[in-house]
Amino acid sequence: MVGLRTISQSASRVRKSVTNVRYASMRSQNWGPHTGPKKAKIVEVGPRDGLQNEKKFIPTDIKINFINKLSKTGLKVIETTSIVNTKLVPQMADGIEVITKINREPGVEYPVLVPNLKNLERAIKADVKDIAIFASASEEFSKKNINCSIPESLHRFQDVADIANSHGIAVRGYISCVVGCPYEGTISSAKVATIAEKLYKMGCYEISLADTIGVGTPGSISKMIEDVKEVVPVERIALHCHDTYGQALANIYCSLEYGVRVFDGSIAGLGGCPFAKGATGNVATEDIVYMLHGMGYETGIQLPELIKIGNYISQQLNRSNGSKAALAISLKDST
Ligand SMILES: CC(C)(COP(=O)([O-])OP(=O)([O-])OC[C@H]1O[C@@H](n2cnc3c(N)ncnc32)[C@H](O)[C@@H]1OP(=O)([O-])[O-])[C@@H](O)C(=O)NCCC(=O)NCCSC(=O)C[C@@](C)(O)CC(=O)[O-]
């Protein structure tokens, strides 16, 4: 740990160049709204956000099998697990085993949630190449989720980002509760923009704006994106929707109008946050992909394969598939 801290200063210099390399490779993929074929990127968060709240422990082999299957669908980013306090999130207690045992396909990124330096150290030992840090726009949620205030968390994340980047590890940044919080109610978009700018400046290659409890509508989401776009280039913005109020696809559609091209989704609509009452499933990846393909966006994802895996994991969890597109297509195919 002491070793990690001592390299923190030179790390900020290295950070800049590593971040720029990541930017260059992302730019070549044209996630922005500009010219060329219409492209969008999906960040599959099912293995982490989708599973973290499951009460019954899912055997590690099933998690690994699930991720290995997802790796063959054309997805370019699969958020694999988290390295956090195992007493608080017991479902992710096998995070290190999962990340070390999956088959990491070339061209696929496997980010892992990391909240602090101690856990970054564990991630580095496990040869993790991509991490996600997770801040919040709500003080209360920040304290409940990561046991510190927003300013303390940003201070902590600066160290994590510096050291991660100095090891060549790319860093994605989340902001939870971007329009509403289960404890504080409405959240100001100006506050979200301030935090987004800080995460971006500390070296996050992408800022994922999370509507943790799914209260956003195209009205509140567009205001929030407008404000964040002022301080973070739109091609570095991702939207992470939960579908609690059935608004997720409408919100994604409206963010497309603002130039956002990166969307987090959870296969079969799995998900929920242990620290946010009312955080139900994430928007189903299959539904996002169905909509994007229908609008002429290329995602590189084979939807039929994704649907098979959504059905597989739903069976393993003994629950019905939460994707409407998957249900409709599976029904049509079976008749
Ligand atoms: C952030 C901390 C660590 C701060 O926790 P802390 O108490 O401030 O710091 P700590 O590092 O001293 O850790 C406390 C205890 O946890 C243990 N610990 C710590 N890490 C590990 C580990 N890997 N394996 C085993 N033990 C671990 C550590 O050893 C210690 O044990 P003690 O000394 O008390 O016996 C804690 O609050 C925590 O882990 N919180 C869980 C956060 C979390 O996973 N939240 C859910 C994901 S975020 C989310 O879902 C939102 C998102 C991203 O999807 C977007 C959205 O929709 O909003």
Please give the domain count: 1
Radius of gyration, whole Å: 18 Å
Low-confidence stretches: 5-28
The largest sheet has its strands arranged as 2-1-11-10-9-6-5-4-3
Keywords: Lyase, Metal-binding
Catalytic activity: (3S)-3-hydroxy-3-methylglutaryl-CoA = acetoacetate + acetyl-CoA
Family: Belongs to the HMG-CoA lyase family.
Protein name: hydroxymethylglutaryl-CoA lyase
In short:
With 335 residues, this protein is an alpha/beta fold. It contains 14 helices and 11 strands. The longest helix is centred in the N-terminal third of the chain and has 21 residues, at 8-28.
Q: How do the strands and helices of this protein lay out in sequence?
A:
Blueprint: H1 2-6, H2 8-28, E1 41-44, H3 46-50, H4 60-70, E2 77-78, E3 81-82, H5 95-101, E4 112-113, H6 117-125, E5 130-136, H7 139-146, H8 150-166, E6 170-176, E7 180-181, E8 185-186, H9 189-201, E9 206-211, H10 218-229, E10 237-241, H11 248-257, E11 262-265, H12 285-294, H13 303-317, H14 324-334
Parallel strand pairs: 1-2, 1-11, 3-4, 4-5, 5-6, 6-9, 9-10, 10-11
Antiparallel strand pairs: 7-8
Helix pairs in contact: 2-8, 4-5, 4-13, 9-10, 10-11, 12-13
